[in-house]
Amino acid sequence: MNAAGDDDAGQPSAGRRVASSLVAFLRTEAAGGVVLVIATCAALVWANSPWGSAYGDLWRRDLTVGFGQYAISEGLGHWVNDGLMAVFFFVVGLEIKRELVVGELRDPRAASLPVLAALGGMVVPAALFVGIAGGGEAGRGWGIAMATDIAFVIGVLALLGPRVPAGLKLFLLTLAIVDDLGAITVIAAFYSDGIEGAWLAGAAAALLLVVAARRLGLRWPLAYVPLALVAWVCALESGVHATVAGVALGLLTPARPVKGRPVLEQLEHRLHPWSSFLIVPVFALANAGVDLGDGAVGSALRGRAAWAVIIGLVVGKTLGITAFTALGLRLRVGRLPDGVRLGHVVGAGALAGIGFTVSLFVAGLAFDSPPLVADAKIGILIASLLAGILGTLLLVGVRHRQALTSSRWNAAVGLRSSSRAS
Known about the structure:
Blueprint: H1 14-47, H2 52-60, E1 62-65, E2 72-75, H3 76-101, H4 108-133, H5 150-160, H6 166-190, H7 197-215, H8 225-238, H9 243-252, H10 263-287, H11 296-301, H12 304-331, H13 342-351, H14 356-366, H15 370-421
Antiparallel strand pairs: 1-2
């Protein structure tokens, strides 16, 4: 007889596998957040050092892959943003698929509140951004304020440890995954160039071949790599951002075991560490290196773009997530996890203002003007720092108030007991 929670083949049950995958995911994200901080600091130091010009020259250097008419030439920075980040978004697609099929998002009742909170955390920051930045090219950056960097957020929660309830991490993770889905939709719909129909049809055909291969029972993962590369190249040439192909491939991955093999879990287990410890840090190294000399920070803060980013991420995320969560509770569309109070949600909403990775990514897509890109990046760095500090202080404050209330209650109960005894 198998142990409880194991299936007939002696393998861990689906529920246990999902729980184990979630724990591994949170640990990898927390550790990846540390590496991301190191890479960001390295980029800033390098860009502001006497070798700062070498920093820009490196990421602008052309790299050609292929030969003849089949060659693709891009600057090294573009290869990072269009190529490596496609793998990052593939992992994001896997996470979304897992949550939709076997995770928190499969249950509409359980998912409704974090989904509503995520919606508030996208709509309110975008509206504030547009209100501050106004029209023109600066206004195109509204997608920057919608993003949440789950690696940084989980890293902060890991540092806080038992000061925050475990349910808050799950609430934030679900919120961030919905946020990722919203960011992907925005990138595909609003930050793609002129669409080339033939190339887009080629990408769709490659994805259909992936589905057909799955239906035919092709189980060898490497056999799908050529089709994935074709889908990526076609998406790159179509004008739809190439990373969207990565998300689509992730969403096509079967979330339930195929002939007893947990394909999605295995892919996520193998690729997530590469994404967290290599791809995202390299992206940060290539994109976070902003020259802060010659009054660049002061110049950025005199313009609208940086302030739109800062207000959108720090104020917009906090207000949007808190207000929409409170509305959901009032309308009884869902409930908070055990041990989580609205005060925790305020702190979590502030932490969600750490947009960093996806915000930097969108900034590069939204603006053609290098000064605007630089201003937006400075705004992202300032906003992420402020959001991290504010969220931490709010969550520690909730813990302190709970401890103080508990202490006063215990003292009152003790006083009553003494009075009765006397």
